[in-house]
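dumping this here before i forget
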Amino acid sequence: MSRTTSIAILCLLALCAGCGSHSKIRKLSAPSIIVAFGDSLTSGTGANQEENYPSVLSVMIGFKVVNAGVAGEDTTAGLRRLPTVLKDERPDLVILCHGGNDLLRGQDASITIANLNAMIEMVKAAGADVILIGVPKPALFLKPAPFYQEIATKRGIPFDAKSITKILSTPALTSDPVHPNAGGYRRLAEAIKTLISKSQG
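structure:
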């Protein structure tokens, strides 16, 4: 192995170690408040009110999880709405699952990326941590839109890349092609619970 190759590998390992150390959230405690912010995937279209993922997650982890999902909303509208939610709820953690409607409507990806980055900056400026949830692009074979991973890596925040994609690719877990059913939302809540547990510093 050449000296140049060895240096390159060491640099890569250092970079990866740095990314891992930054992808943490503060440990949640009894009075902690979590806000689930997003569109219909958060509000729970396709299931009963008590079956949406924020409601199920709240029971699983024992913390208050505010459902701040608005069906049909795109990231531009979400960015306008977020300051009020942060002011009213004062969360310790925000689970950001947004962009699905941008993708369905063929929105320019640069707009979605800018909006998601602005939301993350806004949440952090309010003193809360952020977890990002990836949403798949509409296609015959679903896969997460790549910009979610790029944003999470750049921002150093915990990220779930595949849960929604896997759920929407499983007919038994869906109510329609773009929404989970009660079982799908429970599966998403389980994945987010695991991510929160692994990410707490």
